[in-house]
Amino acid sequence: MRISKEAVAMTGAEVTEKELAKINAFTGRELSADDVFVFSVKLCDNEIDRDGECFSAECLKTLAELFMGKTGISDHSWSSSRQVARIFDTEVIEDYAKSTSYGDVYTYIKARAYTLKTPANEEFIARIEGGINKEVSVGCAVSQCYCSICGNPLGDESCGHIRGLTYAGRKCYGILDGATDAYEWSFVAVPAQRDAGVIKGFYNADAATLSEFVEKCGKAEFTREFELLTKQAEAGRRYLSALKADVVRLGALTELWDAESLTETVKHMDESALLSLKKSLDKKADEILPPVTQLGAYKKNKVKPDDDYMI
After folding, report:
1. Does a structural domain hold residue 243?
2. Can you give the residue range of the structural domain that contains 249?
3. Mean pLDDT estimate for the chain
């Protein structure tokens, strides 16, 4: 499962001798402190993101190793000309002063990156220092996405839970685990929109219908949710069909409508209009056929008004 998550670039700082040694492990020639500009990048964390997913603690540890030496690019453009920086060190930070929304200690990957101090990079460095080039997104791959409720693969036949729904007070979300690769981290032009926080590889724009889209995605979680929505839609259609038939029956009973013309009319009415018309027809039907007592009709020559209720 290939994913891309948003992250944050932090303020630059002076390079230390120890850091310089790590940087030179990736270079073709020995660089000095005057040759490089270093800064920190906050990569993946264990908070539930906009797509209802979070990384597990083990996944973060593996990704910290996988992101070592990875290139920073611009706008996810995989081109050598778009390479602007490189990660030379990573560490997993546990912030005990902060908790995730599900109660765990907030944990994230902090990376140190460098870029060359060249005339071509002067604007790029200035934008980082000025807080303009701040938002980045990271591309990586994981092998599993577990359900927070049952621990089984989310959306699998053994799961049965739907991401975002609450079960017995517990919210269902995906736990990303089994990191297999880290592709790149990319500076983006603007902060990621809510729907763009995660980019999945299974989207297919060639689908002509929603059912075709779900089928082409090949994701069990999407299929299960689509099947549930389909069943709910079928139940809704049966309800509307019964409501329309009831309106036609009342229209014929009150003789206010011709059954054939009313049948054609209700085809184009929504639930609100149907309920409004049914309410009017119910009122008219009660006027034409008022309710009578169970033990007999009203007698004009009765002595007492409650004679009908006497046995």
Report:
1. yes
2. 226-288
3. 79
